[in-house]
Amino acid sequence: MALIVQKYGGTSMGSTERIAQVAKRVAKWARAGHQVVVVPSAMSGETNRLLGLAKELAPGKLTPDYYRELDMLASTGEQVSVGLLSIALQAEGQPAVSYAGWQVPIRTTSAYTKARIESIDDAKVRADLNAGRVVIITGFQGIDEAGNITTLGRGGSDTSAVAVAAALKADECLIFTDVDGIYTTDPRVVPEARRMTSISFEEMLEMASLGSKVLQIRSVEFAGKYRVPVRVLSSFTPWDIDVAVEAQSGTLITFEEDEQMEHAVVSGIAFNRDEAKISVFGVPDRPGIAYQILGAVADANVEVDVIIQNVSKDGKTDFSFTVPHPDLARTMELLKDKVVPQLGAADVVGDPRICKVSIVGIGMRSHAGVAAKMFRTLSEEGINIQMISTSEIKTSVVIDEKYMELAVRALHRAFELDMPKSA
Ligand code: ADP
Ligand code: ASP
Ligand code: MG
Question: Which ligand ends up closest to the CA of 183?
């Protein structure tokens, strides 16, 4: 008998028919003798719908108090899901009980809309499991020290599930979703993408941090910190497939590097449309300018990603960096009002139409010329590179957004990731 945490995403919970299928699948695992905790997301589209309602009523400047209410609102999507799933399980004859995050409780920081989990009390959950019940816990939400409801950021149910699995020392955390595993790149963009049977934790961490939305990055961080075995698999297979077969399906995130395994040099391609580029032109080139520009941006709580500074000419240089899309307007305002006049820079320009495309692979450590191959591939497609950033196991480029799909497909082919064409 094993203790299994199962997470079901929005599409998997998208209708009462889908929820009934989830209930049958969960009941099957329980009947096979396993203790099961389920962490569902809101029904697909529901979180967007709720956030849209808030926008209708508050189109102007947003106060910190607004974000508290946003979490109160957004967290309700998951509460509907746990209630419905528990009802569906009971209708299957499977004893089940549902809890909101605050009832467990799942304690978080107070950073509304992007709270972090600090601790999870497992007493109640264990008692229910020992009494033969399936326990269903809301994804995405928790409670802060003062008793306010918080949410964990978009895609946060992944993190709830892995954190619950860590707290319970579960044998495995199964992330059921609308694809049958982790692919070499998003299969919706590249139909030739291949499913991997396993991926190393380090590579998955890079893929998630570089924009691959199949898992929220914090869920991967949790898995690493607490060594939680995580498997991504499909909730769209027939619900009654054999438990032993299902338990081996999808993609497993592995921690041990298999010495025998021939590593592909590049194992995956990630992309991200959620950043914008800011360039400050004609900056006097003297010590401290990077700090003057980026220090002010950091003080405004804006996360900066890729940074470049050009070679200076006549004592002046240009400085560019990327920020999250939603922070572009705010950062531009800050730079125009305060930083540019203070620095005596010539101009500042924001470009929201960029994207970042990255190649990821542990094999890059031991192979030279991988980045060069990436640049050559992009040049053959006539794609101009605006910025470059590298680390040991990834190379990222910032390019015009309109070339994103072309770049991802060309790189996928060039690094021989395409599925072999059947004869
Ligand atoms: P859920 O609602 O189950 O959380 P998400 O939409 O958050 O599902 O994540 C699953 C989606 O992630 C897939 O439908 C797929 O389009 C996308 N995706 C992006 N990159 C990858 C990848 N490398 N492998 C598999 N899926 C990916
Ligand atoms: N419902 C939340 C969202 O849409 C959390 C999740 O689905 O993981 O972001
Ligand atoms: Mg998701």
Answer: 1
CB 108, CB 116: distance < 8 Å:
yes
Nearest CA to ligand 1 atom 20: 186
The amino acid occupying position 40 is P
Q: Say if residue 62's pLDDT is above 80.
A: no
- Dihedral sign computed on CA atoms, order 385, 391, 392, 394: negative
Q: How far is the CA of 303 from the centre of ligand 2 (A)?
A: 22
pLDDT at 313: 85
Question: What does the alpha-carbon distance between residue 164 and residue 171 come to, in Å, rounded to a whole number?
Answer: 12
**Token reading at 288:** 């401290």
With residue 66 as reference, give the H or E element that holds it.
helix 64-74
* Whether residue 77 has its Cβ less than 6 Å from ligand 1: no
Contact by Cβ (8 Å): 36, 68: no
pLDDT tens-digit series, residues 107-123: 999 999 999 999 999 99
Residue 211 in contact with ligand 1 by CB distance below 6 A: no
Tell which atom from ligand 2 comes closest to the C-alpha of 77: 1
Looking at the CA of 51, which ligand is closest? 2
CA distance 151 to 153: 6
Instruction: Determine contact, residues 170/228, Cβ cutoff 8 Å.
Output: yes
Report how far ligand 2's centroid is from the alpha carbon of 55 (Å): 18
**What is the structure's pLDDT at 301?**
87
Tokens for 112?
């509304």
In angstroms, rounded to a whole number, what is the distance separating the alpha carbons of residues 13 and 27?
16
**Mean pLDDT within 264-284:** 94
In DSSP notation, 250-281 reads SEEEE-S--TTS---S--EEEEE--EEEEEEE
212 touches ligand 1 (CB under 6 Å)? yes
pLDDT in tens, 222-243: 999 999 999 999 999 999 999 9
Give the CA distances from residue 146 to residues 42, 115, 150, 204, in Å, rounded to whole numbers and listed in that order. 25, 13, 11, 35
Assign 158 a pLDDT band (cuts: 50, 70, 90). very high
Which residues form ligand 2's pocket by a CB distance below 6 Å? 9-10, 41-42, 47, 77, 139-140, 154-158
Query: pTM higher than 0.85 for the full model?
Result: yes
